[in-house]
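Design request, tokens follow.
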């Protein structure tokens, strides 16, 4: 790399698929942190609790989440096979056969901090005039357009926690 260049890794909707393998995500994040030594890691994930072991809780959460998603965006016709697979896998499969394991923003944040990352505070994203997105401590939260704004996705930027003097308290949000 030349002076002034830096490494950015884009992880869009990939981490949730790795959760089905025990410790695989932690090992991947350790590799990104220690071997690749990225400067910034962009993470985009579903903001939903679809990783529960209880079938009924997972089913109800999936029903509410995808109802909001399809109500907000005209995605179903364009992406029907993708979402059909995702919903079926999330609801009908158990154990290692279930690879769709979405978590909430709070769960992702906790895991990333535990694995040695901190929120990249210079991360700036637009604010939508229609208020379908909002910024929360440097994290873009994409919501449904319903009266009760339901988080659907989040976009965040992370840097390697390089100094023990940095505290995760600055990452609250």
């Amino acid at each position: 790399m030349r002076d002034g260049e830096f490494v950015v890794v884009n992880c869009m909707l990939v981490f949730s698929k790795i959760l089905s393998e025990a410790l695989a995500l932690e090992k991947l994040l350790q590799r990104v942190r220690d071997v690749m030594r990225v400067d910034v890691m962009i993470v985009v994930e579903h903001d939903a609790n679809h990783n529960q072991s209880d079938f009924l809780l997972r089913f109800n959460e999936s029903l509410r989440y995808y109802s909001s998603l399809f109500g907000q965006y005209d995605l179903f016709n364009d992406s029907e096979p993708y979402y059909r697979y995702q919903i079926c896998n999330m609801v009908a499969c158990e154990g290692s056969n279930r690879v769709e394991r979405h978590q909430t923003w709070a769960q992702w944040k906790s895991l990333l901090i535990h694995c040695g990352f901190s929120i990249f505070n210079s991360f700036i994203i637009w604010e939508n005039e229609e208020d379908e997105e909002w910024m929360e401590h440097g994290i873009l939260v994409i919501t449904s357009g319903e009266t009760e704004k339901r988080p659907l996705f989040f976009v965040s930027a992370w840097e390697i926690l390089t100094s023990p003097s940095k505290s995760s308290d600055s990452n609250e949000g």
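Comment from the thread starter after seeing the answer: thanks! The helical segments are 15-18, 24-36, 55-72, 76-92, 105-114.
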